[in-house]
Design a protein that fits this description.
Helices cover 39% and strands 22% of the residues. The chain is built from twelve helices and 13 strands. Strands 12-11-7-10-9-8-13 form a seven-stranded mixed β-sheet. A six-stranded parallel β-sheet has the order 3-2-1-4-5-6, with helices on both faces. Strand 5, helix 5 and strand 6 form a beta-alpha-beta unit. Helix 1 crosses helix 11 and helix 4 runs parallel beside helix 5. Pfam families: GFO_IDH_MocA, GFO_IDH_MocA_C. Belongs to the Gfo/Idh/MocA family. It comes from Arthrobacter ramosus. Keywords: Oxidoreductase.
């Protein structure tokens, strides 16, 4: 049995989810001759100790102690503002790093982190979990196999059932950076093309406090790819029907939709249509439960050198460039060209 020790920094909502997923995938990894041990830390020490005890994991009092304990990989699930320093700490320790998106609060702050990773031959996987969702994987396969023909339209949708706390939204960077960045990433990944221009509009018809902290609760972006293909990316915080994430791809031969299943948060206006009949997802964690587990299994394989990086920091920053352009367009009311990477 090959042992892999993962160190987890941050045991808030996302951190606890990752910790539970590490435990959940350990059985399948055991069948491959791999055993994962979890160690964790958080500045909220009492809470972290309780989480560790509940998971049978070891608690360490600091990031430095966690790394010094001999972990093989570092999982970062803390607030965005701490990502750069923690990524650097893992890279400097010479261990692979998994970090929730984004790399930093904005693209400008991400660039020095990318330089540090490259200069030190760091291995860093960023958490864009949709790349592991079965529907998106099948859509990419079908497109690459030529089954869809050439794509003429794409429509990406991400809808939260209810908004997160306003305190979070005040520091999230805006709806496009926090939410739609996942759509921007998956569209680049699936098509293999760059988004070069964004024109965005938004509205606030829910809690006025969301507008007061500088955000919108609903937004739509018209995007243009480098080959002229157009698409839309929409998001809302108030989809009472359930958590709804879909991607519609219309091609010259065939059209398919990711996220169209019995749990889709939608109902037909036509008579006699019972589909979908299942209970819609309530949260993103439910919608992407298996994708999150596969993502963490992929990180274990990355730690062991068994696979290529499924989502590089450069990939994540490219998606963030599009999100930045969308936020700028939202504020200015005019189309914005996406800034190109200079290195």
């Amino acid at each position: 049995m090959k042992d892999v020790i993962l160190g987890l920094v941050g045991v808030g909502r996302i951190g606890v989810m990752h910790a539970n997923n590490i435990g959940a995938i350990n059985g399948q990894l055991n069948a491959q001759g791999i055993n994962v041990e979890l160690r964790l830390t958080d500045v909220a020490e009492d809470h972290a100790r309780k989480v560790a005890a509940g998971l049978g994991a070891q608690f360490l009092p600091s990031v430095e102690a966690l790394i010094a304990s001999g972990v093989d990989g570092l999982v970062i699930a803390t607030g965005t503002g701490t990502h750069p320093e923690l990524i650097r700490a893992g890279v400097d320790a010479g261990i692979p790093v998994f970090c929730e998106k984004p790399v930093a609060m904005n693209v400008a702050d991400s660039l020095p982190v990318l330089e540090h990773i490259r200069a030190n031959d760091g291995v860093v996987q960023i958490g864009h979990q949709r790349r592991f969702d079965a529907g998106y994987l099948e859509a990419k396969r079908a497109y690459q196999a030529g089954e869809l023909g050439w794509i003429h339209s794409l429509r990406a949708v991400t809808c939260d059932m209810a908004p997160p706390p306003v305190e979070f939204l005040a520091t999230s960077g805006g709806l496009f950076r926090d939410c739609s960045v996942h759509d921007f990433d998956i569209l680049r990944w699936l098509t293999g093309r760059e988004i070069v221009e964004v024109y965005a509009k938004g509205s606030n018809n829910g809690d006025p406090a969301i507008g007061e902290v500088g955000d919108v609760d609903t937004a739509l972006a018209l995007i243009t790819f480098d080959d002229g293909t157009v698409g839309t990316v929409s998001a809302t915080r108030y989809n009472g029907a359930g958590h709804d994430v879909r991607l519609e791809i219309q091609g010259s031969k065939r059209s398919i939709m990711v996220g169209l299943d019995d749990k889709t948060a939608m109902e037909s206006a036509e008579s006699g249509i019972a589909f979908p009949s299942g209970e819609p997802h309530k949260t993103f964690a439910e919608r992407f439960d298996q994708a999150y587990r596969s993502e963490m299994a992929a990180f274990v394989e990355l730690v062991l050198g068994q696979r290529e990086n499924p989502c590089t920091p450069e990939d994540a920053v490219a998606a963030s460039r599009v999100a930045d352009a969308a936020q700028e367009s939202l504020a200015s009311g005019v189309p914005v060209r996406v800034a190109l990477a200079t290195a």
